[in-house]
Each structure stands twice: as structure tokens, then as C-alpha cells.
Amino acid sequence: YFRNGSRVEPPARQAQRKSFFDAAAAAAVRNAVNSTGSECLRIFVAGAVTHIGKTTVCLSLLAALREAGFSAAELGYIKPATQCEAPDLLKQWCSDEGIEYVSGESAPLVFYSGFTRSFLAGEQGTSQQWLDRIAAKIQEMSASRRVLIVDGVGFPAVGSIVGVDNADVARVARAPVLLVCKSGVGGAVDSFSLNSTYFLSKGVPVLGALFNMGEPEGFYSWDKCASTLKQWFDQQGSRRERFYGVVPIASELKGLRERISETNKSQLRSLAFLNAEHFSKYVDLPSLLFDAACDRWCRGSAAKLPNIAATAAATKTAAAAADPPAKRPRTGENAGSSISNGGFVPKSRQEVASQAKSLGAVGGG
């Protein structure tokens, strides 16, 4: 409900929130965010693989920030490029909290059925135009907020066929990356090393990693893995990437993604709170937020968006020297979409998706 024009939590919800953080932890989170001064702190949440819990991590970060005392108006969530438009727990939670949520149909770029082939045919504008659209929306949301959580799609290279992969989006968002990897030991480190290298190769800073879906017991139990993973990160010398924790599987939350549409609103709110509370027990949130706040992309005048046109032109020139144009996807050309007033109008989704379906397409992309 509202009091004097401001959103006020119902007493029951306020009481529920008190068990989430102690005063010292809440203060540490606030201090980390406030260390950016007046700048918006942006974090790009990327997954090493699909369905590793990126959106769950985003929900938990936002819930922790709410618990630490930030208002709904000070927070925002955006998934700039997406393949999935199904309802999720985060959408319901953001709606209940009053936090702006941009994803699904409202996302700047949707990889719907037939999109990639239409793009390569020159009917969907250029990579640069899509990145400009994404950058504009992120800049708009950042202007009035303290924290903006940017959600990735799939694994790091998703979108590379159209020149708009996760690293490209993180770069125009000026958002350092938090990698979410599967818990383990050797495989977990290998996955982190491979995926962090992808971002670093494109000049995108990586804060570090948290490891999700830890086993509750056994040789690969979450606590044993956490000890080994921390040991590895501590031995990396001059590398800046940090270890933020291992989150064990919570039996109450297992399979929730598939049950969203059949779970009532009250149950979803309880599950969202449980999810965030569980996450916060195992992740070093103050350190994560402080590291993001210290990143050059989240501080002062350094947070200007990059010159996308210059970057695209340089990439196109370098590629032209290496290969004949006919062998490359036309990510920098516009053969079929119309241009008006500096913008672009891609071929309609209805037309492209309908044609793709008639040819047997069953998914996005």
C-alpha cells in the first residue's frame, strides 16, 4: 500500500523481511552500493551453460538489495536479449515489489523462431542497430536507479550468429560480469576458465563466479567443493576474479521453473522469499557488490557507453581483410529492413515466425 505517495510494505511482509539479513549485513550491502557515489551500479549475470540459474541469481540479488533498504524505484531488471518469453518467478516478484522488469516480449531483442535466418538475409537491420537499441534502453533505466541487474541469455556465445552475444551486450551495458557456473571441482574450474576467457577476449571485465546447484552430501558436496574452489581462486595471484560462494540445491525449489504456471500467487511469493533467503546464506553479497562498485565501468565519467559505430566499423574492416564478403554473415549491412530517421524497421515478427513455423521450426532463433 502507499503512504504519502511512497510505497510502504504491509506489516506482515516487513516482519517477514527481518529474518532475511542482520543489521550488519544490510549495512555492508548498502555501503557497497553507495561507494559508487551517484552512479548506477550495473551487474551482468551470465551463465556458463543454459538453465544454470541466472534468473534465480538475479531475483536473489534484487531481493537482498530490497532487504538492505533500497526502494523498488532504486532497482531495475532487464534481460536485453532473450529466447524465452514464458512467465518466471522473477517477473511475478518484480510485479509484486513494484520493480521495473524488462524481458520477454518487452526485451529490446527477442530471438524468436526464424529471426537468425531473417537477420542473415538482411531483413533485420544490423548488429550495430540492435546494440544501439539495447544500449539506449539500459542507459534509460540506469539514469534513475542505484542498481540495475542485467540478465544474460543462455551461455556466453548465444547471439554470436547475429553479432549480439552476451559479451557484446555486457560491453554496451558497461556492466562487469558475474559468472554462474555448475558446482564441482575440476569441471567447475574448467567451465569458469573457458567462459571468463570469452568475455575477457572482448574486453569485458569479469568480477568472478558463484557456483550453483551444489550437492547436499558426498564427495562433491557443496561445502567440500566450496573449500576447493576457494583454494583455487586464492592461488591465482594477480587475477582479479573472485570466488563468491557455492549455493546448494534446495529441495523445496527443485523443478520450480516447470511449475510456475500452475503455482498460485501466494505460493510464488513465499518461494521467491525462500529462494533469496537460501541464496544469501551461501553467497558473499557485500563483496560481490563492492567489487562491482569498484569496477571502472560503474564509476563516474568512465561509465559512458562505447562508440558502437566505431567499434563495428573497425570489426568490419578487420574482417574484410581476412575473408571475402560472400563468406561472412552480413552483420554490418542492411539489405532488407527499412531505415527511417536514423532508426530501423525490421521485417515483422509475425511474418518471419509464421514462415519459419510453416517450414518446421519449433523453437526460437
Give a verbal description of the structure.
The chain is an alpha/beta fold and 365 residues long. The protein has helices spanning 11-17, 23-34, 54-67, 89-97, 115-120, 127-142, 166-173, 186-201, 222-234, 256-259, 265-282, 285-294, 308-322, 349-358; strands at residues 2-3, 6-7, 41-47, 75-78, 81-82, 100-102, 109-110, 147-151, 177-182, 206-214, 242-248, 338-340, 343-345. The protein is 43% helix and 15% strand. A hairpin with a 2-residue loop joins β1 and β2 (6-7). The relative contact order is 0.17. Residues 1-17, 301-330 and 332-336 have low confidence and may be disordered.
Topology at a glance:
Elements: E1 2-3, E2 6-7, H1 11-17, H2 23-34, E3 41-47, H3 54-67, E4 75-78, E5 81-82, H4 89-97, E6 100-102, E7 109-110, H5 115-120, H6 127-142, E8 147-151, H7 166-173, E9 177-182, H8 186-201, E10 206-214, H9 222-234, E11 242-248, H10 256-259, H11 265-282, H12 285-294, H13 308-322, E12 338-340, E13 343-345, H14 349-358
Parallel strand pairs: 3-8, 3-9, 4-6, 4-8, 5-7, 9-10, 10-11
Antiparallel strand pairs: 1-2, 12-13
Helix pairs in contact: 2-12, 3-4, 3-11, 4-11, 6-7
Question: What labels describe this entry?
Answer:
single chain; 365 residues; alpha/beta; two-stranded antiparallel sheet; 14 helices; 15% strand; globular; disordered N terminus
Biggest pleated-sheet summary: 7 strands, parallel
Spatial gap, N to C terminus = 41 Å
Structural class: alpha/beta
Number of helices: 14
| Radius of gyration from the alpha-carbon trace, in angstroms | 21 Å
Counting DSSP E segments of at least 2 residues, the number of strands comes to: 13
Poorly predicted regions: 1-17, 301-330, 332-336
Q: How large a portion of the residues is in β-strands, by DSSP E?
A: 15-25%
N-to-C SSE string, H for helix and E for strand: EEHHEHEEHEEHHEHEHEHEHHHHEEH
Measured as a percent range, the helix fraction is 40-55%
Query: How are strands sequenced across the largest beta sheet?
Result: 6-4-8-3-9-10-11
Shape: globular
Mean pLDDT across residues: 83
